[in-house]
C-alpha cells in the first residue's frame, strides 16, 4: 500500500482542494494513509486538515515537525505504514488513479519515479517547460512532479538530506538517477505556477537555473540556501493582471471538473 506524505506550511488556500482531489482520484484499498507534516503553520492549515479528516474516506494523519521540507518529509516517512512512499507538494494534483499507476510501475520493477507535470499557466515558457517533463532527462526533473519511492529504497538511501533547506528533492533525484532507478509515468500531474506569478516568470527561472548550475559546480547546501534567500525568497514581483486572470480561470476550471 501507499503512504502519501505532504509537507505543509501555511497552505490554508490549497489544502482542502488537494485532499478532496486525492480522495476522489485514488482508492482506499491502495492508500495506507495520507500524512500531512506541518512545519509551523500560522494560518488555518491545521484546522482545515483536522476538519477534513473527520469525514474523509482515507486515513489522515496530521503531525508536526521542524520547518524544512526535507525534515518534514523524513518525519512523515517515519510515521508511514505503506511499502511505497508518495511525496507530494501541497499545490499539486496527481492524475486519476495515480495510486494504481504507481503500484503498476513498482510491480514492473521500477522502485522510484514521478509523473510528467503541467503548470496551471498558459504562458508559452511554462507550457514548454511542462512538455519537457515527459522526457527522462535529468535536467527536466523537479519536486513539483511528485516522487514515489519504495520504503526499502528510501531507507537504503537514507531519506532526504536534511542539510538542504532547498533543493532537497533534486539531491534525492540525483541519487536515484545515479542508481538508474527512476521512471517517468506518462500521465499528467497538475501543479501550481504561483511562485512564478509571485516572483516573475523569467526572474524566477533565471535563479532556478543559477541554483542548478551552482550545485553542479560544487556549491554546498548553505551556499545554495544563501543564494535562494537573497534572490528568490526576498523578492516579489508585481502580479500582472493577465496572469491574475489566468490563475482565476484555471481555478474555476479545476473546480468545475471536480
Automatic annotation (TrEMBL):
<dbReference type="Pfam" id="PF00535">
    <property type="entry name" value="Glycos_transf_2"/>
</dbReference>
<keyword id="KW-0328">Glycosyltransferase</keyword>
<dbReference type="InterPro" id="IPR001173">
    <property type="entry name" value="Glyco_trans_2-like"/>
</dbReference>
<keyword id="KW-1003">Cell membrane</keyword>
<keyword id="KW-0472">Membrane</keyword>
<dbReference type="InterPro" id="IPR029044">
    <property type="entry name" value="Nucleotide-diphossugar_trans"/>
</dbReference>
<feature type="domain" description="Glycosyltransferase 2-like">
    <location>
        <begin position="3"/>
        <end position="128"/>
    </location>
</feature>
<keyword id="KW-0808">Transferase</keyword>
<dbReference type="InterPro" id="IPR026461">
    <property type="entry name" value="Trfase_2_rSAM/seldom_assoc"/>
</dbReference>
<dbReference type="GO" id="GO:0016757">
    <property type="term" value="F:glycosyltransferase activity"/>
</dbReference>
<dbReference type="GO" id="GO:0005886">
    <property type="term" value="C:plasma membrane"/>
</dbReference>
<protein>
    <submittedName>
        <fullName>RSAM/selenodomain-associated transferase 2</fullName>
    </submittedName>
</protein>
Amino acid at each position: 500500500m501507499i503512504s502519501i506524505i505532504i509537507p505543509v506550511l501555511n497552505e490554508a488556500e490549497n489544502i482542502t482542494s488537494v485532499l478532496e482531489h486525492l480522495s476522489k482520484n485514488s482508492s482506499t484499498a491502495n492508500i495506507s494513509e495520507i500524512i500531512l507534516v506541518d512545519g509551523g503553520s500560522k494560518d488555518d492549515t491545521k484546522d482545515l486538515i483536522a476538519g477534513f479528516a473527520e469525514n474523509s474516506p482515507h486515513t489522515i494523519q496530521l503531525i508536526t515537525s521542524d520547518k524544512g521540507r526535507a525534515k518534514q518529509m523524513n518525519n512523515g516517512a517515519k510515521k508511514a505504514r505503506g511499502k511505497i512512499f508518495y511525496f507530494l507538494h501541497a499545490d499539486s494534483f496527481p492524475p486519476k488513479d495515480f495510486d494504481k499507476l504507481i503500484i503498476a510501475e513498482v510491480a514492473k520493477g521500477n522502485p522510484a519515479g514521478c509523473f510528467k507535470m503541467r503548470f496551471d499557466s498558459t504562458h508559452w515558457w511554462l507550457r514548454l517547460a511542462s512538455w519537457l517533463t515527459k522526457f527522462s532527462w535529468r535536467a527536466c526533473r523537479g519536486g513539483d512532479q511528485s516522487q514515489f519511492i519504495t520504503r526499502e529504497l528510501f531507507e537504503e538511501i537514507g531519506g532526504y538530506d536534511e542539510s538542504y533547506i532547498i533543493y532537497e528533492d533534486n539531491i534525492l533525484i540525483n541519487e536515484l538517477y545515479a542508481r538508474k532507478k527512476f521512471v517517468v509515468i506518462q500521465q499528467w500531474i497538475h501543479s501550481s505556477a504561483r511562485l512564478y506569478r509571485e516572483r516573475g516568470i523569467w526572474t524566477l527561472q533565471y535563479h532556478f537555473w543559477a541554483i542548478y548550475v551552482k550545485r553542479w559546480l560544487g556549491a554546498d547546501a548553505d551556499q545554495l540556501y544563501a543564494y535562494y534567500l537573497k534572490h528568490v525568497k526576498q523578492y516579489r514581483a508585481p502580479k500582472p493582471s493577465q496572469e491574475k486572470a489566468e490563475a482565476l480561470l484555471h481555478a474555476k476550471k479545476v473546480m468545475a471538473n471536480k
